[in-house]
């Protein structure tokens, strides 16, 4: 699990927390925590597993942080906790959780130990067919006092056979008031328009909105749109513009900015609400057909894979800018 995540329960997760702790230990052994990126499901999962393993969990209905179990967890040496994810050296977009990792769980769930045991698997969408089938056996015969937690952004991407053996808990049910209040507390310098922009871009997820507030590309959107407009109207200097943006932003930042803008152009063509209401996209949208915009979107996804394969970003941006001229 991410090292920089601080275990906690966010205000919008309190109802789920009360349900889980109130029903424990009669919960069942398989749990699915899901929600959009930026809802805080990783922090919630860490807090819940700490509570399950804590020797004093019922004192104040929170992990005490002082018992032997809590200290083990803090030092990342707890013998009753296993975290499974993609390999550290393979964090690419489509990386999968290998079947060997799931098979290695069998001795852990079958051993007889004091206290509870907790397994966290994330992202659950990274389970391939083989590893998912192997996990089924563990879910069906988990052993006593075992809790298996799966974390997912999109739970419908999990095989139906896995979903049917888990209890589902949504952690991204955030009201507008809760999101607005959270941003007002942690980013008090923002006005209402700025807050709304960040929430639009983050799908109303306040934690993601806080990360976007620090993004270097956020204040460069209009400048890039101006360059994009030059490309399509003047139909020259694609290499110069590509070089400029290759120097101005990392490829991941550029791709994130470009994908938001491209998605908004598609929304304009479809008469749907845009995420960047502070930008005028109508003129640019008129330069392209809907089919062409979807082609560019597909090319962008392929470009991300090229970058993961160590293709130089300047070559990728050169090709993109040439295509954006729409000759």
CATH topology of the largest domain: Rossmann fold
Main sheet overview? 5 strands, parallel
How much of the sequence lies in strands comes to 5-15%
Number of domains: 3
Amino- and carboxy-terminal Cα gap: 47 Å
Helices and strands, in order, run as: HEHHHEHHEHEHEHHHHHHHHH
If helices are DSSP runs of H or I spanning 4 or more residues, what is the number of helices? 17
- The percent of residues in helical segments reads 40-55%
List the helices and strands and how they pair.
Elements: H1 14-23, E1 30-34, H2 41-53, H3 57-60, H4 68-74, E2 81-84, H5 99-103, H6 105-110, E3 117-121, H7 129-140, E4 146-152, H8 160-163, E5 167-170, H9 176-186, H10 192-201, H11 206-213, H12 221-234, H13 238-248, H14 251-269, H15 282-285, H16 290-308, H17 313-324
Helix pairs in contact: 10-11, 13-17, 14-16, 16-17
């Amino acid at each position: 699990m991410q090292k920089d995540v601080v275990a906690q329960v966010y205000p919008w997760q309190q109802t789920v927390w009360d349900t889980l702790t109130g029903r424990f230990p009669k919960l069942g052994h398989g749990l699915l925590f899901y929600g959009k990126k930026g809802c805080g499901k990783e922090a919630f999962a860490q807090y819940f597993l700490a509570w399950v393993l804590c020797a004093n969990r019922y004192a104040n209905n929170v992990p005490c942080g002082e018992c032997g179990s809590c200290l083990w967890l803090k030092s990342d040496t707890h013998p009753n906790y296993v975290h499974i994810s993609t390999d550290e050296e393979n964090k690419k977009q489509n990386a999968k959780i290998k079947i060997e990792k799931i098979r290695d769980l069998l001795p852990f769930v079958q051993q007889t130990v004091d206290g509870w045991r907790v397994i966290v698997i994330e992202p659950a969408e990274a389970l391939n067919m083989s590893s998912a089938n192997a996990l089924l056996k563990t879910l069906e015969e988990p052993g006593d006092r075992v809790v298996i937690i799966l974390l997912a952004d999109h739970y419908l991407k999990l095989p139906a056979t896995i979903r049917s053996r888990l209890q589902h808990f949504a952690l991204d049910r955030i009201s507008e008031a809760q999101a607005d209040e959270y941003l007002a507390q942690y980013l008090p310098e923002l006005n209402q328009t700025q807050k709304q922009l960040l929430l639009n871009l983050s799908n109303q997820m306040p934690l993601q909105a806080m990360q976007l507030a620090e993004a270097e590309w956020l204040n460069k959107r209009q400048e890039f749109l101006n360059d994009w407009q030059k490309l399509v109207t003047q139909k020259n200097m694609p290499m110069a513009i590509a070089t400029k943006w290759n120097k101005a932003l990392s490829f991941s930042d550029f791709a994130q900015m470009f994908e938001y803008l491209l998605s908004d152009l598609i929304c304009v063509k479809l008469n749907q609400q845009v995420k960047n209401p502070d930008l005028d996209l109508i003129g640019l949208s008129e330069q392209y057909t809907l089919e062409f915009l979807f082609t560019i979107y597909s090319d962008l996804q392929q470009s991300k894979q090229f970058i993961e394969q160590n293709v130089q970003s300047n070559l990728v941006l050169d090709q993109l800018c040439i295509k954006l001229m729409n000759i």
